[in-house]
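Project channel, design review

CF: Before we commit to the Prorocentrum cordatum constructs, I'd like one complete example in the thread so the newer folks can see what an input/output pair looks like. Taking Alpha-galactosidase.
RD: sounds good, go ahead.
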Amino acid sequence: MRAVLGLGAAFSLAGLLVYTQRNGSARPVVTGAPSRTVSARAVFGAIRWDAWNGLAGDVVSSTVAQTMAPVKYHWRLPWYATVDPANETKISFNADRQSIMDQELQLAHAAGLSFWAYDTYCVWPTDAHIPECQFWWDTESVGYKATDPAYGLRLHRNSSVKHLMNFSLVLLGSSPATPQLRPRYLELFADPSFQRVGDRPLVFLFNVGRQQADHMGGWAKWREQWDAFRRESIAQGSGNPYFVAMCVGAANLHVAEEARAGLGFDAVSAYALPGGTVGGTAFAAQAAEAREFWGQARAAGLEQVVPVPTGWDPRPRADHEPVWVKEGPEHFLEPTAAELARLVEDAAAAAAEEEPGVALLYAWNENTEGGWLLPTLGNGTTRLDAVAAGLKRRAGAERNHALWQ
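CF: and here is what came back for Alpha-galactosidase:
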């Protein structure tokens, strides 16, 4: 475990890197594409759920503060959070700062990640005039009215070290391909930092199923919007999007496959792999579920972005239920560094054998739900160290294999 120091101080990550943001020393030398610890095929990304801006009056940010306020959850707080010494149940955080984003870009790159996939929603109240956004707030994710859900992506694109990490999008629900919203995303597709599969923008769709398809007039009718999305991206020169349909849990692979087939998408994946028991189930069971998903998708002949869980423990949400989701106290136990490193190593090997050669970690900052990689107040960079170790071992195995060819 590495200590987490204050803003402007040094971070250390598994001996790979020491950044000093204050004076700019020990920065990596990057020529062309950033160097990686894995093969060109085994590209690793991580989901970002940016609800940590401490925005007054924002239902999402305020709910996060309430769920994480109990002292028993403080060890899970992101490294930039603070606890009031005069009132230990009073916490504060605001990740909407360039200095925080710049350090996280450096940390993620040092661990071997290539991109972040940003959860991307309708914006409240900006998009209130769009019927599909109203459906999102009323039916799909009731009350999830984030007023600035893209602050992280904005900071990423404005960063002086943005070249260290690409970005992608996890679009949600029935709204993303509507004519009102497509221009917003097409502008992002054209960014040179958008993650690609070959020359194709890599784009995920989550919260997708028959409910959304029925609302849009059926799969065939809804597909017309996504086909138009493809044509517009090609026309503007950003390429034919590589669309990935996501489900939750290995048992729901059929949900992702139905969406993939119905919308003419290219691949499947899973956002998260929940489960466990009230008393806690060993992380090995969640790792086994991940491997089950990989095997099922492979057996079905599906292209997949290999999902890689880092945990599942939504007890903060079970204690203080958000308006937009109901999750119980069932959870997996905290993974050991060795368990997580082994799963990452195996995922790198699996991704190298799959199209499109990409793995996606859940998640960078889903701390209220149990999936995180970023440093925390209690565990420092333990999980990032484990990811770096797993990718480094995989890179070593690839080099050894190449020597014997």
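RD: helpful, thanks. Confidence is low (pLDDT under 50) at residues 1-12, 14-40.
CF: The longest strand covers residues 166-172.
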